[in-house]
Amino acid sequence: MILLFNAEEFILSASLNGAVKKRVEDVMPIATGHEREELEAELEGKKLLDIDYPDGPFGTKEKPAVIKSYYDRRIVGCPGGEGEDEHDVVWFWLEKGKPHECPVCTQNFVLEVVGPGGPPDGHGDDDDHHH
């Protein structure tokens, strides 16, 4: 099992514990673009991209677990293997072109970009440098 963090799912899960929200504005008033599309699909009970629940065998160096992302990086949580091989979740950024090995269980991961790519915050590297 691999855990993936999506702020949209956290918000929707929290809203489902109380009164069910029907509109994106009720859940996240400032959502735009792809984030809004994902929220609208979730509210309709659909998955915009079926990328949140990867399955498959334990990732090895030869055959790593493939994690799909709309962007060039995403947060992934590794809970280890099954049964006695489980460990506390280790969260990390998985980036396009940079395989990652869990430091606890040595499971290997790679990112497959299934969208237009780019940074998840919508800003390029140049925006990180303030002049």
Automatic annotation (TrEMBL):
<feature type="binding site">
    <location>
        <position position="78"/>
    </location>
    <ligand>
        <name>Zn(2+)</name>
    </ligand>
</feature>
<dbReference type="GO" id="GO:0046872">
    <property type="term" value="F:metal ion binding"/>
</dbReference>
<feature type="binding site">
    <location>
        <position position="105"/>
    </location>
    <ligand>
        <name>Zn(2+)</name>
    </ligand>
</feature>
<dbReference type="InterPro" id="IPR002124">
    <property type="entry name" value="Cyt_c_oxidase_su5b"/>
</dbReference>
<feature type="binding site">
    <location>
        <position position="87"/>
    </location>
    <ligand>
        <name>Zn(2+)</name>
    </ligand>
</feature>
<keyword id="KW-0862">Zinc</keyword>
<comment type="similarity">
    <text>Belongs to the cytochrome c oxidase subunit 5B (TC 3.D.4.11) family.</text>
</comment>
<feature type="binding site">
    <location>
        <position position="102"/>
    </location>
    <ligand>
        <name>Zn(2+)</name>
    </ligand>
</feature>
<protein>
    <submittedName>
        <fullName>Uncharacterized protein</fullName>
    </submittedName>
</protein>
<dbReference type="GO" id="GO:0005740">
    <property type="term" value="C:mitochondrial envelope"/>
</dbReference>
<dbReference type="GO" id="GO:0006123">
    <property type="term" value="P:mitochondrial electron transport, cytochrome c to oxygen"/>
</dbReference>
<keyword id="KW-0479">Metal-binding</keyword>
<dbReference type="Pfam" id="PF01215">
    <property type="entry name" value="COX5B"/>
</dbReference>
